[in-house]
């Protein structure tokens, strides 16, 4: 088997145990930059996709006649034409690697950075200033979690250590998951009215695109903060900009956006009550180790003729 690992921009796979396992059985090539001409991928039996860094369109699949399996890291396939893959007999295998504890940790980090003016303070001190902003604490405040999956539950547990009250909303009926995470189940509108910090962790899909629209953002307290480390389109970006510009909410910290990279001159980049990061949630040393292990499990199972977990829709295997 000839395997190509795509978009390893952090050059992280080389030192993983998963890669060593693969190289015992297969020829592996690592691309640390965008591959450019799809012709360089012809002849590979297997490709490893790092999250959503490469769009697998029908046109791309048509240029890869030798491809038999695409190992997709993470839990989403927004960027893959699954119908085209199926028509060409390409298995789209899920190499999940578990949920992102890094995204959960970043959520809390962004909340603190926003509420304590860390980014602005750092920039001011480095330029010779000495500002004296009044910060806000997490302790004693209410966190509202929108989407109680693995990441949302982990955030809830961390928030408990800060002494926060945690409310949680999920699309599915509550089955005790909120209580197990140390949270109270709540209807979405009620959560938005009560929370001092609203943190988005829902999965992007037809039912959650634009979930936090102008009406729902207007339910938030004037002193509330919005954190989004899930997917940009879950929040109506224009409505959020309007609320921030008019100080109808206190601020926002965003790791994800409608368009990534964020376009130069975007209104969000001009707002003082916003902290922005370039989709930092999942890329960590530990996450790459987990992805490499999951990729090795999937591709070696396929090589041995065993069934592998597959994407059958945009989100589920």
Write a structural description:
With 317 residues, the protein is of the alpha/beta class. The chain folds into two domains: 2-99 and 284-303, NAD(P)-binding Rossmann-like Domain (Rossmann fold, 3-Layer(aba) Sandwich), CATH 3.40.50; 101-276, NAD(P)-binding Rossmann-like Domain (Rossmann fold). Helices cover 31% and strands 15% of the residues. It has helices spanning 17-23, 58-62, 82-87, 101-115, 118-126, 150-161, 177-180, 188-194, 214-217, 237-245, 285-303, and strands at 2-5, 27-30, 46-49, 69-73, 91-95, 142-146, 165-169, 184-185, 197-200, 225-228, 251-254, 274-276. The protein has a seven-stranded parallel β-sheet, with helices on both faces. The chain has a five-stranded parallel β-sheet with strand order 2-1-3-4-5. Helix 2 (58-62) links the parallel strand 3 and strand 4. Helix 1 runs parallel beside helix 11 and helix 4 packs across helix 6. The protein is globular, with a radius of gyration of 21 Å. The chain starts with a strand and ends in a 14-residue tail after the last helix. The model has no long low-confidence stretch (mean pLDDT 96).
Write the layout of secondary structure elements.
Blueprint: E1 2-5, H1 17-23, E2 27-30, E3 46-49, H2 58-62, E4 69-73, H3 82-87, E5 91-95, H4 101-115, H5 118-126, E6 142-146, H6 150-161, E7 165-169, H7 177-180, E8 184-185, H8 188-194, E9 197-200, H9 214-217, E10 225-228, H10 237-245, E11 251-254, E12 274-276, H11 285-303
Parallel strand pairs: 1-2, 1-3, 3-4, 4-5, 6-7, 6-9, 7-8, 9-10, 10-11, 11-12
